[in-house]
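Weekly sync notes, structure subgroup
Attendees: PM, AL, DS (notes)

Item 1: joint prediction request from the bench team. They want all two components modeled as one assembly rather than separately. Inputs as received:
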Amino acid sequence: MLKTKDLMKIYRTEEVETTALNGINVEIAEGEFVAIMGPSGCGKSTLLNIAGLLDNPTSGEFYFFGDEISQLKERQRTNLRKGNIGFIFQSFNLIDELTVYENVELPLLYLKMSSAERKRRVSEVLDRMRIAHRRNHFPQQLSGGQQQRVAVARSVVTTPKLILADEPTGNLDSAHGEEVMDLLTQLNEEGTTIVMVTHSPSHAEYAHRIIQLFDGHIVTENIRKLL
Amino acid sequence: MFKNYLKIAFRGFIRHKSMTLINTFGLAIGMAVCILLLLWVQDEMSYDNFHRNGDNLYRVIQVGVWNDGETYGSSTIPYSLAPVMQEDYPEIADHVRLRTLGGRMMQVEDKTYFEDILLTEPSLFKMFSFEMLIGDPQVALEEIHSIILTEDTAHKYFGDEDPMGRIIRFNDNIDFTVTGIAANPPQNSSIIFNMIIPFEILGEERITGWSWESSGYVQLQEETDLASFSEKIVDTIVRHRPDNENTVLLQPLDKVHLYNPLGHAESLIFVLIFAAIGIIVLLIACINFMNLTTARSAKRAREVGIRKVVGADKKQLIGQFLSESILLAFISLIIAFVLVELFLPAFNQLAGKELSVEPSNITFLLSLIGITLFVGIVSGSYPALYLSRFKPNKVLKSGNAPKTKNKFRTVLVVFQFTISIALIICTATVYNQLNYVQNKDLGYTKDYIVTVPTNAELRESFTAFKEELGNNTNILGVTNASTSPAFVGNVNPAIWEGKVDDETILFNFYLAEYEFLDVFELELVAGENFRKEYMGGDEIPYIVNETAVKLMQLKDPIGKRFAMYNEDNQGIIIGVVKDYHFQTLTNEIGPIMITTLDWWRGEAFIKINPNNVTETLGFIEETFNKFAPSFQFQYSFLDEDIDELYHGFYEMGSIIKYFAILAIFISCLGLFGLASFMTEQRTKEIGIRKVLGSSISAIVMLLSRGFAKWVLLGNFIAWPIAYYAMNRFLQMFAYRAELNIWLFIISGLLALIIALVTVGYRTIKAANSNPVEALKYE
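Output from the run, pasted for the record:
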């Protein structure tokens, strides 16, 4: 599903040049659950952004479903991303002015779906995430765990093939963290590929494989369990 | 999707109340200004467009050359010109002549009115789309003593009674019978009238002569080629009157209101300037929206990131932000409408119009929608482009917009202040000039002089009237003359001993009683003053001014033979008066000849003691009624009459003043919003500085410095612009107050102080905040 070859990402400001990723070779198959770990600034988020088509690499090749797409324009990346990739963030990133229902509905609006179909899908996913009773609340009225459940609902409402999660449990207490991990595992079991950045070794344990990054390199690839 | 945009927009508006208030209020003011000006421009542009034959109607203009070689065009033409044109040229289908007699006394039973009366011919109703409500114009003007009233005038005179056949007494000696009722001419008509009497009342001899006293319009046959016809008519006057070299020109009816007779867009320029100022005020309001929205972008960056992540492309985001600004513009439009309704009466008074909002007018509605879309798109475009550029991977991590120095925002604020400061300077300059005009020594005394219009009866017994007034010690002098000494508009050829060629040289002329110079304290520089015994003597005495002497190149003018108009008025120059301003200060002092001939010295001037004014006025009225019992007593003060001559400039001054106030107000509204954000953004910096020992005043200074810099920069750009514009304005005056650098400095300082006071509240609050709070917050 995803494959990189000699992937490099260099950030330049006027005076400083930072190498965030330095010759990354990685392959992630469909249906996998992969965790990426490493200290702050090792390039985890950069890798996740490139994988999520939010950013282009400086050099190297990047294959998404077999197509080399490392130099796509923003517009093309947006089109490819739409409906195919779901995102979950540490800080939830819900829109404050929209209700739970409207936040979850948002990706569907950009897919130009009929309103009846949207209603059906949103209701279904809210039920699954056990957040339906809060559908008319605004994010500020929810607990952190509830907010992250809404974020997960939003990421899966388009039934994407790939979910990218950037420290999804980072802002949650352990009970709520476990809850989110269970949801991700469940989604993975239903066939969704999941790539997750985490600092928590215990949550990394949920993954099939753990990739350790350090200073832009892959240091170990630990395959925990096979499919 | 659109519903989602609206929802987000509305909830956002409510969440950021102060920002929404600043934006909508600013935009509403800008739009209200624009709507008012739109109404005004629409009205100006609509003049005379209601005539069905409008495309074939032309005003007849005669073109001549002044003494100094300058060409002038005049709509005042010889009586015979229009009729002979119709005789001479088959291309002319019809013609009409018009003349207005100003301020004539009209009496109905015991009521007295002073009215402007239009003298014209029945063809007026055939050529122009003025409507007769009762009577046929052909019949109604057949009898020489018949009169047509407009609906309003008929109502004013006779109330609900039937006006037809009623008698109105003109100037206390002629009775007119009402023979027709016309609809009131539309407000946007160049030809206006309250009442019409037959042109023939002027006398057969006069209206078949070549005296320049009427105006005239012609109607061309359909499909006349204007260019070749215009060439054909150029020499019409000289063919009939070989002594007159003036040429003839046709001015299309739709150009009569906004263009001068020579076709220069005199009034149109004012229309365009005000339209431009209106748009600029609107732009200033739009800039507020741009600045506040981009300043707020930190808060919206996350939303942009999320939307991009879940599948929005740049175009959709631009669409979202634009629909948001357009929505805000529509909300502002509603408020603007309320503001327009509130301020329309005041604006009408200012502009001297009767404008009204007619929501049923399609063009007006379309222009409103146009303005709203313009505002929405202009103010939304930059924020939309700016916000939609954010990269989701950057903004989602930090939750903030990338911190860059926004140069464009600085440019916009500087622009706002440039305009505001330029308008302040313009206001100051206009008022400075008007102040100069008011205080300028005109060369004669204008204070405590009462002007009283008189009739023939009083003129005949003027000496006795004067004597009787002189018995009152509060009356310091009495004289009479042809017009106000402040505005002499009549010219006649001057002929003098030793004049070399046959060229016609025109002098202004003034008919005055012998004590004119004494009452007005005019200074005689050579020769002697008029004497009582000259009145009606054989040798007509003339007094000329210094400019006239220079023009005639006379070394010793006293005693030289001199005549006005023709040899019938032969006399001698008895004195030279020091140059004085007998016209407004927009005119250079020209040559003038003053004589005691009494053709129509209709204005009496009475100098009174500044004490006991009411009592003295009472005495004058009493005496007046004794000498002219049937004539209505009216009076005015000369200094006020002179101010009235500058009415247009006062009007312009107050319009620019209001624009300046609005511009600076809207700019400060924006600056306040911006200051709120910028101090908020620097909370951490302020905290650190305070922890490190900075004083409150040092922080206030630090925060204010940036704003002060913008205003100062605005000053430097505004100064040359204002200098150029005001130089042009002052060129309209032959006598002007010099442009003073202090006006610029004070205007700039004023803007700076207003700006600093505006941001002061925010900066002082920020500087006083607890640093611990600030640091914990980050």
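Discussion: Chain B is about 50% helix and 20% strand.
Action: AL to compare against the crosslinking data before next sync.
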